[in-house]
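Much of our argument rests on the idea that a fold can be written as discrete symbols. In the encoding step, the backbone of a single protein was reduced to a row of integers, each denoting a local shape. We regard such an encoding as a compact summary of how the chain folds. The record that follows shows the chain in one-letter code together with its fold in token form:
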Amino acid sequence: MRSAEPGRRALLNAGRQLLATENLSKLSVNAITTAAEMAKGSFYQHWPSRESYVLALHRAFHDELDARVGAATADLPPGEERLAAGFTAYLDGCLAAPATKGLLVQARTDAGLATEVSARNSAAAALLTTDLTAMGWTDPAPVAVLLVAATAETALLELDTQSPRPDLRAALLRIARP
């Protein structure tokens, strides 16, 4: 039996490429399969609906960012250096991904992704609390929530300029200091 993975991967890659110029709400099965050069029926061999595909696309995007952050921070102890390395890895990953705007901003308003977005944001905030605690915060949870939002906003502003914004990245670290 042949693996379904190449087709699944091609469809996910097609969605990422389309989201470089298309709104998430307008991403259609027809456009995805056309971009992947696959028959429409092949889409439904992998996902039962467009909504389940968008969820898989969102998860794959964030899983890749999580892996980048994990690799960049794995050998660092909790604290400011690890926090800075995580911010850099996350923001560089967002800047490199054509689907960032659709999967970071537009996903917030997609009802089918609301639970996933909330869970991802909560998980990111939980990771940040370890670094913030090491930096001296006695109640790091609210600061972590705000840093998650500020980091996402920084990613979007960097997308507008298509380059890193050192001023904003430095500001994230200043906000993180107690």
User: Anything to note?
Assistant: The radius of gyration is 18 Å. The chain has nine helices and no strands.
